[in-house]
Structure formats: structure tokens, C-alpha cells
Amino acid sequence: MLLEIGIALLKIIVVFALALLTVAYLTYIERKVIGHMQVRMGPMRVGPHGLLQPIADGLKLFMKEDIVPYEAYRFTFYFAPILTLVTALILFAVIPFDKHFAITRLNIGVMYILSIASVGVLGILLAGWASGSKYPILGGLRSAAQMLSYEIFLGFSIIGALMISGSLDLVKIVESQHVWNIVYQPVAFVIYIIAALGEINRVPFDLPEAETELVAGFHTEYSGMKFAYFFLAEYANMIIVCSMATILFLGGWRGPVLPGFVWFLIKLFALIYFFIWVRATFPRYRYDQFMKIGWKIMLPIVLANIVVTGVVMMMVQGG
Predict the structure, then answer these.
(1) Which of 148, 160, 241, 300 has the highest local Cβ count within 10 Å?
(2) Which secondary-structure segment (H or E) carries 22?
(3) How far apart are alpha carbons 319 and 256 in whole angstroms?
(4) 3-state SS of the chain: helix, strand, coil percent to 5?
(5) What does the CA dihedral 49, 56, 120, 144 come to, rounded to 10 degrees?
(6) How big is the CA angle at 105 (ends 242 and 86), to the nearest 5 degrees?
(7) Can you tell me the distance from the alpha carbon of 248 to that of 243, in angstroms, rounded to the nearest whole number?
(8) What are 101's strand-pairing partners?
């Protein structure tokens, strides 16, 4: 019993330490990649080739003055960024990085991910409301509409892969992919990627914090470590949605020669690189265009994909 508890605690420490380190250095990677895409160097001043820039950023945010607006609801104002970060980090608990390495294994792992991720919307909504000023409230309302809408498309997009795998267990989903699900579900994969960009507020769908319209949206009034929590949560969520895409569509840790976790990381960082590439390439959509894409285009396509998948599976099973 004590040995099992010790192993579980060790897994928790390893996963969360690596997750936080990866999140911190994703900011460096993103700035470097976008810099080279735009023919500039990116961070160069702190450490060799700017490698210590994330540490310098962390120290700067830790030492910055903690400002709270006079009309803010103080408890909720402090609670919102903590809720957003915690809900992002506890999603790592069920991600299988290898067949034998996950903090815990649930037979409803997909439902756990979807249900906990939906709570993260509350953190952003509360942050906008608790700030007590106009732009954060508008950003929070945008975020609520955006994330709830695109959460529906995200959930529908993975149903085809779940039907093929016949399980909600993330490990069984990977083990069932003798051929990657992206081969059978290319349309669902594209819808998933677009919906994931909207769900985690990434460019070109970063409308809750559109600086051209809302100053900084829901986190306009936040500074110091409270702002850092939102920043960390965004990158943690990007890792989660890319991990889920790897598990559901790209065969997870399956691959020749190399160890399983190496294949998982290769696929994961390839998707993260694609998300960064999208940020460097596309301009921000208007809000009405963004919602139109979801409800008028993506929803009918993803529902048709579910119907076609079901019909084909019935025909195959029926011989």
C-alpha cells in the first residue's frame, strides 16, 4: 500500500514538474519559431541564444506589483486565475505518455478530459466579471460563448474515433489503432484541430483577449503572478489538446524502433509546432465570422461525419 502511494506521488511529481517546465519553455520556443518565420532572431539577450529568457520572465512576473482594481470583487479576482491553471494542470493526470506511464488510468478518460476542461471556461468568465470594468466583462462573455460553442464541435469531432476504438479508455484507444484513426477520420481530425484552436483561445481565434478591440480582454486588469497563471494555463491547455489529438488520431505512443514515449513526444511537438505556425500565418477572425464558421459550417460537417462513420461501421460489421 505504501509502495503504491509512493509510486503514485513520484509519478505526480515527475509529470507536473515536466509539464510546468515544458509550459515555461514553450513560450521560448514559440517566440523563437515565430521570430525565424518573420526573419528575426527572437529572444537572444538572457543566456546563450536566449535560453534563460523563460526564467527571466518568471522572475519579472513574480516581482511585479500586484494591482487590484478598486471596484473588483477581490476573492473572485484572486480565485479565477488559480481555477484556470489548476483545471489545466489536473488534466495531465490521465494522459498516457506510454503504455505503462500515466499518473492514473480511467476507463472513462475521454469524459474526464472533456468534463474538467469545461470547468476552465468558468475561470476566464469569472476573471472578466470580477475585474469590475467593461473590457474584461466583454472578453469574459466572448470567452463563454466561444469556448462553450467550440467545446461542442470538439466533442462531436472525436465521436468517430471513439466509435472505431469502441472505448473511452485512452490506453485502449491507442492500442486499437493498428492503423491510425486519422486515416479513417481525416475530416474529424481537421475539425478537431480547428475546434481546439478556438477552445484554447489561440490565434486566429484569440477573440476573448483581442488587443485591437478589448485592450487585453478578460485579463486586462491582471498583473504579476495572477497574469502568469493565465499565461501558463493557455500553454498547458495547448499541450493537452495536442496530446489528445496524438492519442485519438495519431496512434499515441505507437511507432517502430524508438521507445513509445519518444514517439508520443515527436507527434506532440509536431502538433504544437503546427499551432505556432498557424499563429505566425493567419490574421485574427472577426467574432461573427468565427461563430459562423462553427455553427454553419463545422457543425453540419461533423454531424455528417458521425452518421457516415456509423453507416460504414454497420456495413463492415454486417459483412
Answers:
(1) 160
(2) helix 2-37
(3) 32
(4) 75, 0, 25
(5) -80
(6) 60
(7) 9
(8) 98
Q: At what angle do helices 224-249 and 109-130 cross, to 10 degrees?
A: 150
Confidence of residue 214 (pLDDT cuts 50, 70, 90): confident
Q: By the 8 A CB rule, do 125 and 144 touch?
A: yes
How far apart (Å, rounded) are the C-alpha atoms in residues 305 and 318? 20
Name the grid cell of 141. 462573455
Three cell numbers, residue 279: 499563429
* 286: region left, alpha or beta (phi > 0 left; psi from -120 to 50 alpha): beta
Lookup: cell for 102: 500515466
Report the distance separating Cα 15 and Cα 209, nearest Å: 29
Show the cell assigned to 160.
Answer: 468517430
Grouping H, G, I as helix, E, B as strand and the rest as coil, residue 98 is: strand
Position 16 scores a pLDDT of: 84
User: Could you count the other beta carbons within 10 Å of the beta carbon of residue 81?
Assistant: 24
Longest dimension (CA), the chain: 69
Which cell goes with 298?
A: 463545422
End-to-end Cα spacing for the chain? 49
Q: What is the DSSP string of 246-307?
A: HHHHS-TT--SSS-HHHHHHHHHHHHHHHHHHHHHHPPPPPHHHHHHIIIIIIHHHHHHHHH
Residue 199 identity:
E
Q: Which three three-digit cell numbers place residue 164?
A: 472505431
| Its pTM surpasses 0.90 | yes
User: Which distant-in-sequence residues (6+ apart) come within 8 Å of 118 by Cβ?
Assistant: 148, 151
Q: Look at residue 290 and tell me whether its pLDDT is greater than 90.
A: no
Query: Can you count the helices (H) and strands (E) in the chain?
Result: 14, 0
Distance CA 130, CA 120 (A): 16
Question: Rounded to an integer, what distance in angstroms lies between the CA atom of residue 207 and that of residue 144?
Answer: 11
- Confidence label for 319 from pLDDT (cuts 50, 70 and 90): low
Report whether 185 contacts 309 (CB < 8 A): yes
